[in-house]
């Protein structure tokens, strides 16, 4: 009997071991489809979210045009203001300077006084005064002279009552001629200050 038990004991232990091992493997196998998918979602979210991203992108894509459609009417409102501003800029007269001078002539002062009345009627519009020169002189000299011309007009408008915060200046030198030509008639029209809307 002892011999039979000794012979059966290893067989029984092996059977129990195999049976219990198989039972564990079956439990693992039955849980594996659930457990790896859960761990895959946590460990590698990119792989799981990659297919979901296009599905989420669809609602976002439909939401984007809705916001851009809302933005278009907002852009159309400044367009109406731009027309008003453009009308003002077109109403502001240029002033002209003598050769190699940034001193305001009587005619320039009269024009600036007329421009002042137009600017006073539109208190929220900011203006840029653009100084220009004729083609004579070096680039550096003309840039400095054109800036001084713009500053002269600005100082005069401020003295009339336009707040300095509404005005800015820039000098273009000879870069933006109003008239092409190499004679006094062309040069006289190029020595000027122009007024534009400053946004």
Give the key terms.
199 residues, alpha+beta, 60s Ribosomal Protein L30, Chain: A, 4-stranded mixed β-sheet, 6 helices, 9% strand, cell outer membrane, lipoprotein, Pal_lipo_C
Q: What percentage of residues falls in helices of 4 or more residues? A: 55-70%
Strand segment tally = 4
| Rg over C-alpha atoms, rounded to the nearest angstrom | 42 Å
Q: Please give the CATH class of the domain at 108-197.
A: Alpha Beta
- The end-to-end distance, rounded to whole angstroms, is 109 Å
Q: Could you say what the CATH architecture of the domain at 108-197 is?
A: 2-Layer Sandwich
Mean pLDDT over the full residue set: 76
Structural class assignment: alpha+beta
Please give the largest β-sheet: 4 strands, mixed
Strand order of the largest sheet: 1-4-2-3
Under CATH, the topology of the domain at 108-197 is which? 60s Ribosomal Protein L30, Chain: A
Q: Name the poorly predicted regions.
A: 22-81
Region (Disordered): 33-58
Subcellular location: Cell outer membrane
Signal peptide: 1-23
Main location: membrane
Helices and strands in order:
Elements (H helix, E strand, L loop, with lengths): L1 H30 L2 H10 L1 H47 L3 E2 L9 H16 L5 E5 L7 H22 L6 E5 L12 H7 L1 E6 L2
Parallel strand pairs: 2-3
Antiparallel strand pairs: 1-4, 2-4
Helix pairs in contact: 2-3, 4-5
Membrane topology: Lipid-anchor
Subcellular location: Cell outer membrane
Keywords: Cell outer membrane, Lipoprotein, Membrane, Palmitate, Signal
């Amino acid at each position: 009997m002892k011999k039979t038990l000794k012979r059966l004991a290893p067989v029984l232990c092996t059977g129990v071991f195999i049976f219990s091992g198989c039972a564990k493997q079956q439990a693992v196998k039955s849980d594996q489809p659930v457990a790896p998918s859960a761990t895959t979602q946590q460990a590698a979210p990119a792989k799981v979210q990659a297919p979901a991203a296009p599905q989420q992108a669809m609602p976002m894509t439909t939401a984007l045009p809705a916001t851009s459609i809302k933005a278009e009417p907002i852009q159309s409102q400044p367009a109406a203001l731009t027309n008003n501003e453009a009308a003002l800029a077109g109403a502001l007269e240029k002033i002209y300077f003598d050769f190699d001078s940034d001193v305001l002539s009587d005619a320039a002062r009269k024009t600036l006084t007329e421009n002042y009345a137009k600017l006073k009627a539109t208190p929220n519009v900011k203006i840029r005064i653009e100084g220009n020169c004729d083609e004579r002189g070096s680039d550096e000299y003309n840039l400095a002279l054109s800036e001084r011309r713009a500053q002269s007009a600005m100082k005069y408008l401020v003295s009339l009552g336009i707040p300095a915060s509404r005005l800015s200046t820039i000098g273009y030198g000879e870069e933006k001629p109003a008239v092409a030509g190499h004679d006094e008639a062309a040069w006289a029209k190029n020595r000027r200050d122009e007024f534009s809307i400053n946004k």
